[in-house]
Design a protein that fits this description.
Blueprint (H helix, E strand, L loop, with lengths): L7 E6 L12 E6 L5 H9 L17 E8 L2 E11 L10 H17 L3 E9 L6 H10 L6 E6 L6 H14 L6 E5 L8 H12 L6
Parallel strand pairs: 2-4, 2-5, 5-6, 6-7
Antiparallel strand pairs: 1-3, 3-4
Length: 207
Amino acid sequence: MSILHHAKFVTSAAKLQQLPPPGPPEVCFVGRSNAGKSSAINVLANQKRLAFSSKTPGRTRLINMFGIPDSLEPDAMLGYLVDLPGYGFASVARDAQEEWSVVLGAYLKKRSSLAGIVLLLDIRRGLTQQDMRLVDWIAPTGKPLLILLTKADKLPYGQRQKAVASINQTLKAIGNVHTIAFSSTHRMGLEEADERIVQWISPQAVP
């Protein structure tokens, strides 16, 4: 059993300063409001409703933290999965979009316990202008980046491989990037994604 399966909700925060002080490693999940972020977190944690997805994409404005308990110290956490607010939904007011951008940028640039970043992209859309803006924030941090191309079951194998290769080529200058064709409904790419995230949180852990 993966340590991610023990994830439990810890806290929500509207601003960076409302989060607990930096401590154990954190793996954050970022992506457009309709990229399947909540579904990915749920399937990785093997739980149906750990992360909640709003019926109206773009409505969830909070940073949500899910802790991974330490089996040797029940009151301590090995690390956290951090669900950052989605971005890029057209019906959301521009001032609200800018507010979220500030929160996203501040977390990615300033959070000292950030160990790795999971960027979710709809495989059928590829990298949008807003995704590239996010990548521009990520690059200077030097943090490892895992890209999950969600909804990969919607494309045949050959197109999936081309999509992965295209993303890798576009972002090769960043360095530490790995791309996986992923599907929450078909559990595609799940084991590979789990292995990388677990290693960021606890390099000694045995999945």
